[in-house]
Amino acid sequence: MPAVEIKDIGTGSAMILPGNTSDFKISSFVPDLYGLDFCREQGIPVLFRPGSCPASGASDTAAAFDYLTSVYSDIKNVTASGMIMAGYPDYKPLAEVMKRKGITFSQTEFIKQVGAAGFAKTMYPMVIPLHSLTRDEVISRSISRLQITERFVRAVHERSVRLIMVRPYDLNMGGRLEVFIEDLASTSGSIKARGYEFGWPSNIGIWPDSIPGALACGITLIFCGWFYIVRLKGGEEERVGIRLLSFLILLSLIISAGMWKVSLLARVLGGLCGALAASEAALSALESYKKPVLGAIKGLFIVTAGGLAIATFYGTTMAALRLTPFSGVKLTLLLPPLLVLVHDLRRRVHPESLPEIINRPAVWGELFLIGIMMLAMLVMALRSDNVSNVPTWEVAFREFMERTLLVRPRTKEFLIGYPALVFYWYVVRKGWIPGYREAVRIVSVLAFSSAVNTFCHFHTLLSLSVIRTINGWWLGLLIGVIAVAVINYAVVPMSKKLTREIHS
C-alpha cells in the first residue's frame, strides 16, 4: 500500500494504514514468512493464498506478489483466500505476473469466491482444479473423517481434480497430529489403490477443437431425430431410399458446419443431441423385448456412440476445467422421458391416449406410482449435490465397488434404470399389467439418460466414463435378471399357492 505512513515513536516506528477498521477486519497484510522460509529450506513447493485488501489496488497487489515470488521461488501455485480474490476486479496485473513466472492458479470446487471464476478465465490454460473442505463446512454438516476421505477420493477419481488441500478438522480432541497422519494415510492409500501417483501437478494443455467431433454430433442429432420421427409415424419397417439417405447425410454436414462455426447454435443443439441419443437408445431397447440381448447391446452402443460424439466436440480444455458450462447436462436427463412418453401416447403403446387419461377418474395404483416416482426424483435431486452427506455403510460400499470395478457405476443405472428395463421385458412377454407398463418404461429411460449424461461431465477422464457406462449396463442387467428370476420362480408360485389356499 503506497499510501502507508511510517512515523518514528520513541525507539520504535508506527505504520499508519490508509483505511478503516471494518476494511482491515477482512484484509491481509503480511504473508507467513516463517512457513515460506521452512518450505524454501526443505525444497517444498508452495501453494500460496494471497488475501484481499480493499486498500490495495490490482497493480499494487501484483507488484507485492512479484517481489514476494522473486524472494520465494518455491511458490508454484496460487488460490484465492477469503471471500474476494486479491486485486478484484482488475485481474490482468496479477495474472501477467503469474503467467510470466509460470505460476498456476487453482480454482476451488463448489466454493463461490468473488472474482475467482473470472481470474481463472484470465489465467487459462494455467489452471489446476482444487478440492478443499473448510472447517466450518465440516462442523456444520457433521462430516465424518471417513466421509472426508471419500470426498477427496471422489474429487480425484471422478472429477479429475489434481490438487487437494487436506487439513486437520478438529473432529477429535487431543492427538490431532496422530489423527491427521492417519487421515493422510487413509486418503493417499485409497487414491493410490486406483492407480494414481503423487507429485506436484501441472496444468493440462490446450486441446484443439475437433472437426470430427462436430461431424459426429451432427450425424447423431440428425439421424436420431429422424429415427424418432419415423417411430412416431410407425414406419420402422420401411426401407430407406438412396435419395433420403443422401439428404440426411447432407443435412448432417450442414448442421455440423453450423455447430462448428456458430457457438450459439452449438450451445443450443448440444443438449438436444444427447437427449435424442438417449431416447433412441431407450426405445431401441424397450421395443426389443422379443430379442432382449440384442436390444440391450443396441442400447449400449447408441448411448456410447452418442456420448462419445458429445464429449469429442464439447469436451474442450475450457469445458474440462469447468470454465465454460455445458447447457445439455440437465437436458439429457429431463428430455428423454418426455420424448418417450410422447412416443408411447401417440403410438398407443400405453392402452389409453392422453385425453382419455385426463377425462377419467384417477386410479389409486397410478397415484401410488406417481408418488413413488416423485419421491425417487426428490431423493435423486437431494443426493445429486456433491456435498451431500452419505451414510458410513454406503461410503464403505462405494469404496468396495471402486476397488472391485475400477469405476463405480451410477445408481440411476445399475439399481433403477436397467433393472426396470429387464422387468419391462418380462411383464410384456407375460402380458401382465398393461396399464402400468408405461411407468416402468419411463423409469427404464433413466438408465440411458444417465449414461449419456455421464459423457457430459467433461472434467472426468473419457476412459472412466466408458468404463462407468459399461459397468452400469452389465451390472444393472444382471440385477434385473436376478430380480425377475426371483419373481418368476419364487414370488409368483408362492402367490398362486396362497391364492389357492385362500379360495379352498
Automatic annotation (TrEMBL):
<keyword id="KW-0472">Membrane</keyword>
<feature type="transmembrane region" description="Helical">
    <location>
        <begin position="320"/>
        <end position="342"/>
    </location>
</feature>
<feature type="transmembrane region" description="Helical">
    <location>
        <begin position="363"/>
        <end position="382"/>
    </location>
</feature>
<keyword id="KW-1133">Transmembrane helix</keyword>
<feature type="transmembrane region" description="Helical">
    <location>
        <begin position="266"/>
        <end position="286"/>
    </location>
</feature>
<dbReference type="InterPro" id="IPR043748">
    <property type="entry name" value="DUF5693"/>
</dbReference>
<protein>
    <submittedName>
        <fullName>Uncharacterized protein</fullName>
    </submittedName>
</protein>
<keyword id="KW-0812">Transmembrane</keyword>
<feature type="transmembrane region" description="Helical">
    <location>
        <begin position="211"/>
        <end position="230"/>
    </location>
</feature>
<feature type="transmembrane region" description="Helical">
    <location>
        <begin position="242"/>
        <end position="260"/>
    </location>
</feature>
<feature type="transmembrane region" description="Helical">
    <location>
        <begin position="411"/>
        <end position="428"/>
    </location>
</feature>
<feature type="transmembrane region" description="Helical">
    <location>
        <begin position="440"/>
        <end position="460"/>
    </location>
</feature>
<feature type="transmembrane region" description="Helical">
    <location>
        <begin position="472"/>
        <end position="492"/>
    </location>
</feature>
<dbReference type="Pfam" id="PF18949">
    <property type="entry name" value="DUF5693"/>
</dbReference>
<feature type="transmembrane region" description="Helical">
    <location>
        <begin position="293"/>
        <end position="314"/>
    </location>
</feature>
